[in-house]
Amino acid sequence: MNVTNNSPFEDDTDTDTDTDTDTDTDTDTSTETMKPKPTPAPDEDLNSDQETAAAENYESQNKTADELMKEHVGEVPKAEKKFSLASLKSKSEEAVPKSNTKPGTIAVGKPNDDTFVRTSANSDEWAAFDFIELKTEKKLYLLTPDVVEEINSLNEDRAQVMIKTMKKRLIYSVTRLGDPFLWPITILDGDNDWIDSANSCAEAAKEEWVRVVSNTNAGRYDYLASPSTTEPKWPAMTYEAAVLKAFSGKVIDSMGHDVIKQLLGED
Q1: Strand pairing class (128-134; 116-119)
Q2: Which end of the chain is less congested by CB atoms within 10 angstroms, N or C?
Q3: Could you read off the pLDDT of 22-32 as tens digits, one per residue?
Q4: By the 8 A CB rule, do 68 and 75 touch?
Q5: Residue-wise over 134-162: b if at least 16 C-beta within 10 A, else e?
Q6: Going by DSSP bridges, is the β-strand pair 166-175/128-134 parallel, antiparallel, or unpaired?
Q7: Is residue 59 part of a domain?
């Protein structure tokens, strides 16, 4: 009788219809005959070359999986080490703050708009100084009062501004990471929204942490106050020491200074 195969897989059934029943066919299906027989050891009656070849063949066929793996790839791969989530968690959730300035340096400039700062409440640490600014080099040079007088006299004698000076307050300030810096704010006659708003931000920073942001559309500085009540970590360095360190090598104390010569076009 013909049987139709409806399996979705390829039919592996033997289609040979030979019904020969050879009585000599071994029908023993015991588990003993199903086991693969090990490769016999080399025959002791073989000559030396045959014995060596037979021995190598014997060893090759009887190597363990690890031995074969090491032979082909050089090393048996180690099992991947497993971790638990608990073993990987930090032992502390407290952040480790990193300073943004080099040890012993004092930065001079407006605070970055992503940094919260505080300013000194001591009016003596808001002192005014005279400066020359080289904009191409983005550097401020501190002038002694005597040099300021000489520059003013030069400008009057020439009836024009030969050398431009400016007056700025250097406000002792500190970041939340404890980095001290000097915040220069220009002192200017008349109204200027940028300068007036900068002063307002610095005044607010006496009492609370503020982040100063430039509002270009309105032409002024705005600030965001932090809810943090943590007190600032002021350095042991005095205001005087901070100013002198910040302007080390950048104090103009005579008209023969290289910066003065540069501005006058002298060699």
Answers
A1: unpaired
A2: N
A3: 444 444 444 44
A4: no
A5: eeeeeebbbbeeebbebbeebeeeeeeee
A6: antiparallel
A7: no
Question: What is the DSSP code (8-state) at residue 267?
Answer: -
Token couple for 190: 């008349």
The answer as to whether 168 is a domain residue is: yes
Name the residue range of residue 179's domain. 107-190+233-264
pLDDT tens, 187-229? 998 889 999 999 999 999 999 999 999 999 999 999 999 999 9
Which ranges of 11-136 does DSSP label H, i.e. alpha helix? 31-34, 48-61, 65-73, 85-88
* The pair of three-digit structure tokens given for residue 4, joined into one six-digit string: 């139709």
DSSP conformational letter for 206: T
- Domain membership of residue 76 (yes or no) is no
Only one residue has tokens 């005597």, namely 146
Smallest CA-to-CA distance from 220 within 249, 194, 244, 192 is with 194
CB atoms under 10 Å from CB of 117, counted, come to 25
Number of folded domains that form the chain: 1
Residue 159 lies in a domain: yes
Rg (CA), the chain: 44
Contact 123, 250 (CB under 8 A): no
